[in-house]
Design a protein that fits this description.
Number of strands: 14
Structural class: mainly beta
Number of helices: 2
Strand order of the largest sheet: 1-4-5-8-9-10
Strand content: 35-45%
Distance between the termini: 69 Å
Helix content: 10-25%
Shape: globular
Oligomer: single chain
Number of domains: 1
Largest sheet: 6 strands, antiparallel
Order of helices and strands: HEEEEHEEEEEEEEEE
Length: about 210
């Protein structure tokens, strides 16, 4: 019995250790919105939502882990989280991706339905520029690949589909520990995309094309 108990204890300890080792510092996350649909009555008289089209952002969600002033200040603003790239990958790990089933109008420019890398040019606490790029993305980091996007590394502005200024509030009252992307004020014809971390919230409006 003692031997069985010891074996079970070792298995449990091993499982806990393995789970801890596998936990990612920047877990995967998604944000979704549905647009273009409408509530209608079906044959049974029940209300159903039909005609919806999806917009989805897939990204990794870094945490502060007791860090402060995560974006930096002055000439160093954005330098630390860019990790050597010229722009920010809006998260961590691989490139953040926006996928839309409908054309979107952002800052007067039409973005066709499809998938795009989502990046941010961080100029100052009040100047963020959203970038949607058609540049090919790496699905796993390859140090020998100097052409395709990995995070924001190898970024080439010639593939930009849209560059649009964001509205930035760098003095939000609550301190958000984990980087979060979400949709707000969503209607049938548009809404806002928001990026939030620490005391900064940056938003941009979009309309269905």
């Amino acid at each position: 019995m003692k031997r069985l108990f010891l074996c079970l204890t070792l298995v449990l300890a091993s499982s806990i250790t393995t789970a801890a080792q596998e936990r990612q510092a920047s877990p995967a996350g998604t944000a979704q919105a549905v647009v273009g649909g409408a509530w209608v009555k079906n044959a049974d008289g029940a209300s159903v939502y039909q005609g919806a089209k999806w917009i989805e952002v897939t990204y990794s969600r870094p945490m502060l882990r007791q860090r402060t002033n995560i974006f930096g200040s002055g000439a160093e603003y954005g330098v630390a989280i860019r990790a050597g790239a010229t722009v920010w990958r809006a998260g961590a790990n691989l490139t953040t991706v926006l996928k839309t089933e409908v054309p979107l109008i952002i800052a007067g420019k039409t973005v066709a339905a499809g998938e795009y890398g989502l990046l941010v040019d961080l100029k100052s606490p009040t100047e963020w520029t959203l970038i949607l790029t058609s540049q090919k993305r790496q699905t796993a980091f390859d140090p020998n690949n100097t052409t395709d996007l990995s995070g924001a590394s190898n970024y080439d502005p010639k593939f930009d589909v849209v560059r649009a200024p964001m509205h930035v509030d760098s003095k939000a009252p609550s301190k958000l520990d984990q980087f979060t992307i979400y949709f707000s004020d969503v209607t049938k014809t548009g809404g806002k995309l928001a990026l939030a971390w620490e005391n900064t919230i940056a938003t941009i409006e979009f309309r269905v094309g």
